[in-house]
Amino acid sequence: MAEAKQGGIQAIFKLSARPQCETVQKHDQTIDLEPESLSTRVYIAECTNCQLVLKKKAANVLIEKCQDLVLTMSAELVSGTLEVLKSSKISLKIGPNVKIPTVTADSTSGLQIVLLENEQQVESLYFHESSDLTIKVQGDGVEEKEYAANPPADAAAHRQFVAHWVTNEGGVQLKTEKVVREGVFPYAEEELKEAQEKDRQNADKAFKVLEKEFMKSRKK
């Protein structure tokens, strides 16, 4: 019992001792961020009018209470997630050959994500109580496009939303939906409905197969 307790304490200590690269209360500066290791968390807080560049791969990035800040991502994140919290006028530039699958924004206004290669560099933008969110595609030899992440008109403001890409006859479009949860996992509302309908159809097929086999066995 004592050994198990000691092991648990050691695990908690290791988690709390996770390395962190902090940039706090910087103003009117240009800063290169070079995390020590892949497990390093990059934390940017209370900065104004700064230009930052992530030069090395990190675990994740959190931007909190910042204003007029530009972060250029020249490296990817192990977790694949970049978070923006309680900030305004934030520009995230995703460099060529870099993918950040998930960006989240909470209590944030004026967030622009600039993709310097194509739409596939960011898969989803989750947001809550945030406004003026855009995704822009631009770069050398790239057709410039801009998409707005607007919640559905009939949705309550306190809901969480997700903006993600859909492909149709008109090309690639940014679609915003309400987030619903199945267990602990978040889904776009339409995505969950499609998954549930697919499960229902598969269940119907399985039932019909079993029913057919049962009828065959009765005839023997």
TrEMBL record:
One GO term of the biological process aspect: cytoskeleton organization
SUPFAM superfamilies linked: C-terminal domain of adenylylcyclase associated protein
GO MF: actin binding
Source domain of life: Eukaryota
Adenylate cyclase-associated CAP C-terminal domain boundaries: 25-147
Pfam families noted in UniProt: CAP_C
Name of the protein this chain belongs to: NAD-dependent deacetylase sirtuin-7-like isoform X2
Species of the source: Paramuricea clavata
